[in-house]
Amino acid sequence: MELLSELDGVEIVAVSSFRETEPVGVVDQPPFLNGAVEVETSLAPRALLDALLRIEYELGRTRDGTRWGPRTIDLDLLVYAEEAIDEPGLRVPHPRLHERRFALEPLAELRPELVVPGAGKVSELVTALD
Questions:
Q1: Is the pLDDT of residue 26 over 90?
Q2: CATH class of 2-95
Q3: 61 has catalytic annotation
Q4: Measuring CA to CA, which of 72, 74, 105, 128 is 20 to 30 A from 58?
């Protein structure tokens, strides 16, 4: 959060509570800690993603392990305003957001009426997982 708040052109607006969740994919690993942060930014989506990846690197994240395996940190760009982006290395909204309770619940805590482009309201997406 501190590194995110120090980025030029990024202001933290709200932070969800954090919750411990069971891993998805590779289940033989410790639980994850999940939350969501709402920001206002003057950065373009690609520049924001690049900044998030730099923060991951600074905090010791490497990408040479098992996909969905243990990691020190994982910062995802879930939504960017009402934009839908599909380009190499950048898909917004996050392509699996609508099926991930561990991402939707913190997002719903911040903005339940937020519409995920192509999927619907966050609050309805959470309910659909029940």
A1: no
A2: alpha beta
A3: yes
A4: 105
